[in-house]
Amino acid sequence: MGVSLIFRIAAVGILVSVICQILKHSGREEQAFLTSLAGLVLVLFWMIPYIYQLFETMKELFAL
C-alpha cells in the first residue's frame, strides 16, 4: 500500500464532504446520503485487494 492510495482516499473524503454539504444546504438530504454512500463504496473497492492480501498472509502465517 503506497502513499498514493492514502492521498486518493483523502481526496475522495474531501470531495464527498464538500458535495454533501452543498447538497444538504440546498435541501437534498437524500442525494447527500447517496453521495456519501457512493464514496464509501468506492474506497472499499480500492481496499479489497489489500484486505484479500491481509487474509492470505494471515492464512499462510497460521497454516500448519
Automatic annotation (TrEMBL):
Pfam families, sorted: SpoIIIAC (PF06686)
Organism superkingdom: Bacteria
Keywords in alphabetical order: Membrane, Transmembrane, Transmembrane helix
InterPro entries to which the protein is assigned, alphabetical: Spore_III_AC, Spore_III_AC/AD
TM region positions: 6-23, 32-52
The protein, known as: Stage III sporulation protein AC
Annotated organism of origin: Clostridium symbiosum (strain WAL-14163)
